[in-house]
Amino acid sequence: MVSTPPAASAASAPPGRRGADPAELLELARGGAGGDRRALARLLSIVERGGAAARDLARRAAPGAGTAYSIGLTGAPGAGKSTLTGRLVGDIRQRGGGPVAVLAVDPSSPLSGGAILGDRVRMQDYALDPGVFIRSMATRGHLGGLAAAVPDAVQLLDATGWPTVLVETVGVGQVEVEVASTCDTVVVVLNPGWGDAVQANKAGLLEVADVLVINKADRPGVRETKRDLVQMLQLSDELAWAPPIVETVASSGEGVGELHDAIWSHRAHLEAEGGLEARRARRKAEEAARLANDRFAREVADQLRLEQTEDRLAGGGLDPAETADRIVAAVARRLAGPER
Ligand SMILES: Nc1nc2c(ncn2[C@@H]2O[C@H](COP(=O)(O)OP(=O)(O)OP(=O)(O)O)[C@@H](O)[C@H]2O)c(=O)[nH]1
Ligand SMILES: [Mg+2]
After folding, report:
1. More confidently predicted of 318 and 245
2. CA of 88 to the centre of ligand 2 (A)
3. Counting ligands in written order, which one lies closest to the CA of residue 79?
4. Does the C-beta of 317 come closer than 6 Å to ligand 1?
5. Each residue of 66-86: pLDDT tens digit?
6. Of 62-66, 139-143, 144-148, 267-271, the least confident
7. Residue 164: which domain range?
8. Quick check: CB of 79 below 6 Å from ligand 1?
9. Best substitution site from 82, 168, 176 to test ligand 1's pocket, by max atoms within 8 Å of Cβ?
């Protein structure tokens, strides 16, 4: 008699079948480059959709996570983030840096379902490399938005055996800055030319930058942009880490090795000073505050709608201060219960 080994049932289950349980998918996806990519893609869709299922998955993944390093790349549209991300992946792979996962995050799109958006990540370069996993992410459903969904996605990739995760954001705005800031090292990509550094400063990008890149360094204005950056960065020269400024030509690969070195220097700096744990703890606290704020805001908006309806029925004349008191009291009562 031939007996089936106990592990075979989970391993031989068709990974694409509907309704597979997250615990099973998590098991299938483990092993990084050797894991089941369809299972991993389905788990990322759960994260993307948010809600109770995403929270449950995050709880399951947490014990297996904590060793991966995340790198966020942000900057103005068209700055060359995708080209640079592609080059960086190539550089890491060439140096034997292990498997690399890329999340291309687009806050302006509806749920991506994992589709690659345009040519944002040059997927075809890595189609044959099992050590590279690329996925687009967009969400409106996740409580706390992308800034909350991305750390969950990174944690999932971490738990399933991807030691390096690159997070590329599309566009420059508050959400992109928040998303990039959830990563261990934040790379801000600028271009040469009048005012780009000033714009980045206004958008709060310089504040979160650990490494600054002047990409398209084959174009004029590099020196001026560098000078602007140095001037603006001097305002905060008491910092323990001064963000290095790296010049790259992503289209040719020039300077990508230096960028890699700058990122890994920052990583070494964080790890040497115990700063990595502190940074991650601070990041989690910020995420908690964001989630709590979102929950309050949602409850206040709901209660305000009720108050407005009652006010209309009573013939108008809403008193703002009294209404605020009633809203606070009602929301406090509701929040004392479990999350809806
Ligand atoms: N001259 C020059 N062109 C570059 C360089 N890097 C990227 N490009 C070009 O700039 C354009 C935009 O590059 P992407 O990598 O798609 O830029 P992105 O920042 O990812 O763009 P979005 O995701 O749309 O915000 C492409 O046509 C690239 O070929 C560079 O160093 N020099
Ligand atoms: Mg892009």
Report:
1. 245
2. 14
3. 1
4. no
5. 999 999 999 888 899 989 999
6. 139-143
7. 19-273
8. yes
9. 82
* Per-residue pLDDT, 223: 94
Is 219 in contact with 191 (CB distance < 8 Å)? yes
Say if ligand 1 is within 6 A of residue 170 CB: yes
Q: Does the Cβ of 78 fall within 6 Å of ligand 1?
A: yes
* Whole-structure pTM value: 0.84
Yes or no: say if 301 and 159 are a contact pair by the CB < 8 Å rule. no
| Domain closes at, from 231, 246, 273 | 273
Please work out whether the CB of residue 81 comes within 6 Å of at least one atom of ligand 1: yes
Q: Are 244 and 289 members of one domain?
A: no
- Asked if the structure places residue 110 within a domain, the reply is yes
- Across the range 203-224, mean pLDDT stands at 93
Distinct helix (H) and strand (E) counts, the chain: 13, 7
Neighbours of 17 (CB within 10 A): 7
Gap between the Cα atoms of 294 and 309, Å rounded: 23
Listed in sequence order, the residues at least 6 apart from 132 whose beta carbon sits closer than 8 Å to its beta carbon are 89, 93, 99, 100, 101, 102, 126
State the chain's mean pLDDT as an integer: 84
CATH number of 112's domain: 3.40.50.300
User: Does the structure show a pLDDT above 80 at 144?
Assistant: no
In a domain, 11, yes or no: no
